[in-house]
Amino acid sequence: MTMRAQTFSKYWRLLTMSWQDGLVYRMSVLMWRVRRFLAALMSLTIWSTIYASSQTGATPFGYTQSAMISYIFLVSLMQNIVMATALNGLAQDVYTGQISNQLLKPVSLTGYLVMQELADKLKNTSAMVFEFAALFLIFKPELVFPTVGIVFLFAVWTVGAIILNFCISLLFGCLGFWSPETWAPRFLFYTLLQFAAGQLFPLDVLPTLVQKIMYATPLPYLSFVQTQLFLGKLDGAAQLRHSLTLLVWILVLGLLAQFIWKKGLKDYDAAGR
Question: Does any domain span residue 272?
Fold first, then answer.
């Protein structure tokens, strides 16, 4: 067997093992999926109620009812694809010394984490197909599919958002090298994310100054810009600008995560091991 084939076989086994590990506690997986489904259902129901109580033909926030329902449907889809991650417990694994098990294995730790993340994405996406089919039948969002080029760019931006979220998760994981108090920073981050990534409502309904502040962070690139692209709200210049900005954020946060991770490993004493 060639070296390339051995490497592929090794990471394929890592992927399958991560998939199996993720399904060990089936009730936890089920409850997580029920939570995500109910969150999307509640958001879509609230916005449907807001528009139902408005005057006929009114466009609150500059969005028609069909446009807003389509937006919430898409952003909920992006949340499930991008924000679901297997790295939520990474900081705790680092602080407790559990990560030593992976450091001692003849496998790249980055590769191990990537396979874990990929298995988690596949698990959540598999369940999401059925959940969003049900939501589609209930709310019937009027999704108009854009051109093939836009769909391709949307897919590229979605992959970019996944990589960006992976880098952010690694940065939070690095906290475990120096402190056991990792829950509070993550809680604050995800609270801010609900607002700054456009998960509660479109960012373009906010004042221009607030939008500029939001765009000074990487958070809109985790879901908002992708939905705007799909809904046809970005022209060619905006597409180029957002593509470059997304790439820059990935490079900056990726290099920063790599630097801090290496620095943390130098101080790592495998507490409890």
Answer: no
185 within 8 A of 175, measured Cβ to Cβ: yes
Q: Report if residue 88 sits inside a domain.
A: yes
Structure tokens at 154: 């949307």
Consecutive 10-residue averages of pLDDT for the chain (273 residues): 67 76 76 82 84 66 78 86 80 74 72 82 84 85 83 93 90 80 78 81 85 89 92 89 95 91 75 53
Range of the domain at 163: 3-267
In terms of Cα–Cα distance, which of 82, 97, 255 is closest to 171? Answer: 255
Question: d(Cα 33, Cα 23) in Å, to the nearest integer?
Answer: 12
Give the residue from 174, 166, 102, 131 showing the smallest Cα distance to 29. Answer: 131
- Collapsed DSSP state (helix, strand, coil) of residue 114: helix
Quote the pLDDT of residue 152.
Answer: 93
Q: What is the pLDDT of residue 243?
A: 95
Interatomic CA distance for residues 107 and 129, integer angstroms: 32
Residue 196 belongs to some domain of the structure: yes
- Does any domain span residue 30? yes
Q: What is the structure's pLDDT at 56?
A: 58
Number of domains in the chain: 1
Q: Which residues contact 268 (CB under 8 A, 6 or more apart)?
A: 94, 177
Task: List, in order, residues 6 or more apart from 253 with CB less than 8 Å away.
Answer: 164, 167, 168, 171, 218
Residue 107 CB: number of other CB atoms within 10 A? 16
- Among 242, 201, 205, 247, which residue's Cα sits nearest to residue 225? 242
Residues 45 and 139: their CA atoms lie apart, in Å, by: 9
User: What phi and psi, each to the nearest 5 degrees, are found at residue 198?
Assistant: 75, 25
